[in-house]
Specification:
By secondary structure, the protein is mainly alpha-helical. The chain has helices at residues 2-8, 25-32, 43-56, 69-92, 99-102; strands at 16-19, 38-41. It contains five helices and two strands, in the order αβαβααα. The longest helix is centred in the last third of the chain and has 24 residues, at 69-92. The protein is elongated.
């Protein structure tokens, strides 16, 4: 990533880099770019991180009822994750015209 960034750094300033958390792409970009760059996670890694945070968050003792509160908290985390992924996926996908309209000239 650093070599590619050096080549285009004169004409391009990268403000955001979307990658997974394990990638060294951001570190390579940051080492050669002069301007500020903010790392972003892709939808998959962002949702997994969010689910993990919700599953491990300390909720009040009355937030989940029943005997197995951790299972309910995990189910809640999965539900929030699924809803957020659906919203983000809908937001970033371009509108695709319906087939009937796409074939009409």
């Amino acid at each position: 990533m650093a070599e590619c960034t050096k080549e285009v750094n004169e004409h391009l300033n990268v403000s955001y880099l979307t990658s997974d958390g394990d990638s060294k792409a951001f570190a390579g970009l940051k080492s050669v770019q002069k301007g500020h760059c903010e790392p972003l996670k892709d939808i998959r890694h962002l949702s997994l991180s969010m689910k993990r945070q919700i599953s491990n968050a300390p909720f009040s003792s009355t937030a989940f009822s029943g005997r197995n509160k951790s299972a309910l908290q995990n189910r809640f985390a999965s539900d929030v994750k699924a809803r957020c992924v659906a919203e983000l996926t809908e937001a970033v996908q371009p509108e695709v015209p319906e087939k009937s309209n796409a074939w009409n000239y």
